[in-house]
Amino acid sequence: MAETIGTVLPDPPVLKRNPAADPRKMRRIIAEDPDWSLNVVPLLTNLCLEHIASNFEAKPMLDELLPSHKAYVLEKLPPSLPLDVTANLICDEGYWKKCCVERWGLGDVAAYGNSWKRMFFERHLENIIELFIPDVTDPKLVLDMVPLCKDYVKKLNISQLLPPIKNTQKAEEDDSSDSVSNNGSFDGPSMDHFDFGILLSKLIYLEELHLVYGVKGCGMNFEWNLFEFTFRDCESLAKALKSCKTLRVLRIHQSKVDDEKCRLLMSYLLDHPSLQELNLSHNLIGDRGARAIGKLLNRSQLRSLNVYDNQIRGPGAQALAHALSKNASLLTLNLRLNRLGDEGGQALAHALAKNQSLVSLQLGANQLTEPTALALSQALVKNSTLKSINLSCNALGQDGGRVLEEGMSHNVTLVDCDVRVTYIDQESEVCISQILRANQSKTRRKHMQELIIK
What pTM was computed for the model? Predict the structure, then answer.
């Protein structure tokens, strides 16, 4: 047998797995680059819209944009943009809400017809007027605002009006210190408070005006002249009111309106085409002023008259009663906290017997006694429109309570009668309450029947 001669090769080496080389167990190293981002490059459209928003003051552009693009730009616009740029260009409520919230915080937009834009311009104009100082503030500040806000202002609530700055230098006590110079010219301020004549005729949609001629928060600097409604103020205001043909509600409150000023105001308000509510509460109106208001009742379409807390006595109440007996538009009359006495109370009661429009009458705290209660009792038998009457804080007495109860028992429309602190006995008070509840039930049933028919 032949032998086979050859080279014997060694076995191949066995490769052992290195645990450290397992990619699942290897440590990963990530390089951090602060300038590197995963964000996608912005769209060219967004870059353009950002440019429009950032340059809006120099070149405003809004109406030319698509709705979605317009919303994007409005979201980016700051509320600090000048009003001459934004007022007549931006109508978006979201933008004006942002302006209001930044300046005043959250407010009740329902009081402004649910319009943030109206809220902004009304409050902005109010602030300008309340901080206006005659002969110091330039009237141009107000006039320049008119073209921007006139389409949006419907109500102004002016809670203070500043007087001119008092000259602290002591005047020499001689003829040269008189307010009228030797040539007859007036050396005092050109006006006593803000002159509404430059503004009201230009606010073409103004419906409500509330005024207080006084200063808020005067603190230790209190002086009576800070709370003056001067004759010049009254004259300029009266002329301005006559020119404001859209005004429906006028309130001059806590402003020391006396008889002379009241008569002047009423003379300019006669035959006003739109005035429906007049509030002169907390003033100094007496009988002569009340007679002027009576004339206004006969030559206007007032639906509400409030002269609460004045100085009207019997003769003034008689003048108002005479007008009320002929009036067919007035719905509410508030004469609380005056000094009518039985002379005025009886006159008003006789007017109620003829009037067929008044719904609410307030006579609280007017020094009324039993004779007025008797006259009102007789009037309630004939009257079929009055629903509410306030007689509180009058000394009607027990006999007055009984006659009032008797008259109310023949009335089916009165549903509210305030007889607190009138010194009527408890039995009469209980009977009056029962009559009122019965009338309330009848009114509810009648209302339900009317709804069913409709």
Answer: 0.85
